[in-house]
Design brief:
single chain, alpha+beta, Beta-Lactamase, Heat Shock Protein 90, 3 domains, 5-stranded antiparallel sheet, 5-stranded mixed sheet, 12 strands, about 20% strand, elongated
Length: about 425
């Protein structure tokens, strides 16, 4: 806008309105007023010019922002399309996985369940499964949604009864990291290991059948020889009056050896737990030594035991503990040459707990056999069923104790039975 145009507009404003026109005297400005008016017009023009420039700059910035916004919108559109493509690809991967996949939040609401999971659980309609509770109610398969404290994998196995029969499933669950615990999720990956379990069970059955066949063969051999000896001793008792007592002792030794063999077989296949009570260790050892003494006499082995005047009380099953002692003594006698000795000792260890040791003067244990001594069916000499020491180990575990084997330099082998320290209330019972 020019100064002249501004003056014209001002004059027009002066004539507009309801008032009467100004007189020439009133309109005619003085020299000072004309100068001020000119300065005001100049300021007005400068301000108007600045506003016009600012408006043009603002229009330019708005156009630039509009262009930038268009670019951003295009980038978002492309990003959204890419996310949709990746999401679809991931869903295709999850749906084609050979294992079951399920995702649930902390409230137990299921967000993802793939077809393999549905097939594995025998779910007829996926739309009926919305929560872990409904999954359990419909299939009997229980999953927990509380694995949020750690991101480590948790693995477990579970057995599921379906219309097709028994199925074994391996479940691996992992918490998906989230800043908001209320929206945290857990992913479950489920694999069907039924075939593996059946194969493992078949292998175990085959292994047991093989071991049973081997043990049966060895038992037949071990029982047959003593039976022949027993028959001979019975004839000698009938015919030889002079040495009848010796033959009777040998007959008794043979019967007790057979009894020990039968007891080992029964103990090995007895899954029941033992009933423990406070008993005298000294008296139990005395009874075992007395029982097996004929076997030692027949083998020409000296059987000794030293209690050191220690009448210790232990928490044990007397019958089972006696079976352990009989097995250890018979095993030591078997590996001790005639003229040797088997020694039993009753002591306290450094912690005050009761220990029973059985040492012999035989050739000891081969180093490569030490770690296999207590395996069922293992026999160092190969001429026994290999059940005696395995039964000892099992019975000691049922007592909460342990059995260990070692070689004593110049003195053969040594077996040590360690019992838990007896609580005061049991010791005084």
């Amino acid at each position: 806008m020019s100064p002249l145009q501004g003056a014209a507009d001002f004059a027009q404003l002066a004539w507009d309105g309801d008032t009467a026109p100004l007189s020439k005297e009133q309109i005619a400005p003085t020299g000072t007023s004309a100068l001020m008016l000119a300065e005001a017009f100049a300021d007005f023009v400068a301000t108007s010019s600045r506003l016009e420039n600012s408006y043009r700059e603002l229009q330019s910035e708005v156009a630039a922002l509009h262009e930038e916004l268009g670019k951003r919108n295009e980038d978002l559109r492309l990003s959204f399309a890419e996310n949709q493509r990746v999401r679809f690809a991931l869903q295709q991967v999850v749906d084609s996985m050979p294992c079951g996949v399920l995702v649930a939040n902390v409230a137990g609401e299921i967000s993802t369940i793939n077809p393999e999971m549905a097939k594995m659980l025998g779910i007829p309609a996926l739309q009926t499964i919305r929560t872990l509770e409904s999954l359990k109610a419909q299939t009997g398969f229980e999953l927990s949604s509380q694995n949020l404290a750690t991101e480590r994998d948790i693995e477990r196995e579970c057995r599921l009864q379906t219309a097709e029969g028994e199925r074994w499933l391996q479940v691996r669950e992992r918490s998906l990291s989230s800043a908001d615990k209320s929206s945290a999720q857990t992913i479950y990956i489920v694999s069907d290991i039924t075939a593996n379990k059946r194969a493992e069970r078949d292998r175990e059955a085959a292994r047991n059948a093989t071991v049973l066949a081997e043990i049966t063969t060895m038992l037949a051999h071990e029982i047959r020889n003593p039976l022949a000896s027993l028959e001979l001793f019975a004839e000698l008792i009938e015919q030889d009056d002079a040495q009848r007592q010796e033959w009777i002792s040998n007959l008794r030794a043979g019967i007790r050896s057979l009894s020990g063999t039968v007891n080992n077989v029964l103990s090995m296949h007895d899954p029941g737990s033992l009933r423990l009570s406070a008993i005298s260790a000294k008296q139990t050892i005395t009874n075992a030594v007395r029982f097996v003494q004929p076997v030692a006499n027949q083998a020409g082995v000296s059987l000794k035991w030293a209690a050191n005047d220690l009448d210790a009380v232990i928490l044990a099953n007397e019958s089972a503990l006696q079976q352990v002692l009989l097995n250890l003594i018979r095993n030591s006698i078997r590996h001790t040459p005639s003229g040797g000795a088997v020694i039993l000792q009753l002591q306290h260890d450094a912690n005050g707990c009761v220990t029973i040791s059985c040492s012999d003067s035989g050739s000891g244990i081969r180093p490569d056999q030490l770690h296999r001594l207590f395996e069922a069916g293992f026999s160092g000499s190969g001429d026994t069923p290999g059940l005696g020491l395995a039964v000892c180990s099992r019975i000691m575990q049922q007592h909460g104790g342990a059995i260990t084997a070692s070689n004593v330099r110049g003195s053969g082998a040594r077996f040590l039975l360690s019992f838990p320290c007896l609580q005061q209330e049991h010791a005084t019972a």
